[in-house]
Amino acid sequence: MSKFDKFILVLLAIEHLGFGIYGLYSPTSIADLVGYELKTEFSFSEIRANYAMFTVLGLMAFFAIFFKSLVRQTYIIYAVIFTSLILGRVLNYFLTEDLNNTIMIVTAAEIVVVLLCLIRLFFLRRRKEEETE
Predict the structure, then answer these.
(1) Which of 46, 75, 98, 106 stands the most exposed, by the fewest C-beta atoms within 10 Å?
(2) In this structure, what are the phi and psi dihedrals at residue 40, rounded to the nearest 5 degrees?
């Protein structure tokens, strides 16, 4: 595994473990960051469910640093999940025409994650093809 892959995976692990654990531990605080109101037990469950997903993503990135066999799958899963988040934000824009700075910054960060994952997948595939020749 390249040093660049390790660097990307460390960043993904830190970011998503951090936010994930924060959302699991303190759903009220994370809801305040994004402007949610938690009025029912179900709303707390929804926040924790979503942030459990971020925690698991962070764990996947962390384990992929040590287990080379997880790198490709981690990049694929990140690309799929973050593409779905981007599509949701684009759909929200078309439905509400709401596009403030925070939404644009978060969307840009998600696009960077997807692009990094796709680029790394391309180079991993290319390296594998070169090794088999």
Answers:
(1) 98
(2) -135, 165
Determine the Cα–Cα distance for residues 44 and 46; give it in Å rounded to an integer.
5
φ/ψ of 67, rounded to 5, equals: -120, 100
Q: How far is CA 99 from CA 37, 38, 84, 88, in A?
A: 20, 23, 17, 13
Residue ranges covered by each domain of the chain: 3-132
Q: Which amino acid is at 127?
A: R
Question: CA geometry: angle at 107 spanning 41 and 80, to 5°?
Answer: 75
Q: Tokens representing 68?
A: 């080379």
Look up residue 89 and give its amino acid. Answer: R
CB 113 within 8 A of CB 12: yes
